[in-house]
Amino acid sequence: MAIIQFPEGFRFGTATASYQIEGAYNEDGRGLSIWDTFSRTPGMVKNGDNGDVACDSYHRYEEDIALMKELGIQSYRFSIAWPRIFPNGDGEPNEAGLDFYHRFVDCLLANGIEPMCTLYHWDLPQSLQDRGGWESRETIDAFVRYAELMFKEFGGKIKKWMTLNEPWCSSFLSNYLGVHAPGKKDLQTAVTVAHHLLVAHGQAVMKFRELGADGEIGIAPNVTWLDPYSDRQEDVDAARREVGWFVEWFFDPLFKGEYPSFMTDWFAGKGATVPIQPGDMDIIAQKLDFLGINYYTGHIGRYKAELGTFDCEVIDAGYEKTDIGWFIFPEGFYKVLVHIKDRYGSIPIYITENGACYNDEPSEGRVRDSRRISYIKRHLVQLHRAMQSGVNVKGYLTWSMMDNFEWAEGYTMRFGLIHVDYNTLVRTKKDSYYWYKKVATNGWFEN
Length: 447
Ligand code: BGC
What we know:
The protein has 447 residues and is of the alpha/beta class. It has a single domain, classed as TIM Barrel (Alpha-Beta Barrel). The chain is 41% helix and 16% strand. The strands form four sheets. Strands 6-5-4-3-2-13-12-9-7 form a nine-stranded parallel beta sheet. A three-stranded mixed beta sheet has the order 8-10-11. The protein is globular. The N and C termini lie close together (6 Å). The site of beta-D-glucopyranose (BGC) has 11 residues, from loops.
């Protein structure tokens, strides 16, 4: 038995996102987002589920914040729904939307919980999508206007900001793999969208600095790690490209002001190029105050030509899987964190998401999700190990505070520390909630 102790001042928290929990999709002047449209498109979301009601947190936020307080967390990561603020993406802001987030943030602060705010967790106003979405540079301008208003409105209250959640998902997963809204399947579109997202990020950071905003700003990309199946060059290269697609594709522009040539060459070979305009790379490479990292899974990868553009086949090496079918690879968490430190330096890092899908249901008032406890424990052990190897980690936020709308999986996949009954909206604390409460309160756990 070893004690895994996190340093003084290390912050524990949980995370959620607006469309996944809020519901109230047509209340108080909220406009529609691409997820309202996508979830109504037959066949895109399991069971035809949508976020119309979700966890109803828009109305139940006080109850949810009371649960957070009892959980003993120091920080809570949430996102603002852009279409509540600008129902049409731009134009006049919606006062009722602003009021809601004021009430919400005030309630967090009154309960001693630090708000960590994501500006864009995928709910792009549909009206902007109708005008080209992230394929158009006009969406960059609209995002910066939205970001500016948020910095002015919530300055002093919210001191940690993230521009974007997981730009890999809102570009490639959404526009090349077609799994998320808007559901396109075109590599060039995805590459263009990824670039525009990064420019939007950079311009928002510039605006933050220009306003002299009090606080810190970063971004929250998702990363993975693949070990090559063998030391055959093809396997090594395929695994490297797969990691590069998540890490270097986004991090090289952010930290070095250039795209990685091993990836641009690869994309060029598939007919896709980045539409860089003069000045873009300097805009993207703004100095960040911190880096958010989302990590869930990693793999062993082997070259397989038939796969096409991304020719890395995931090998079943016998690792356990969570209920969503993702391999559990805690060591990949360590490896990718060390890789990021070695390549980009020791920027302060918050783990803005890490967690597991297990669909345990309540019985006699209890949810026995010991597998979630084990998952989080194993990842915290690797995180601690990375910190001992010099990775500058300031906090850890588990995904998620409560079960919620899991995008294309609808309500079928549960990631929460709190169980939500989607018929009654009753919240039930899981065993992992009680375990995490001890970790968040003590700053250590027994392994
Ligand atoms: C996203 C969350 C999502 C979670 C589990 C991340 O990709 O940021 O919104 O629910 O992973 O899939």
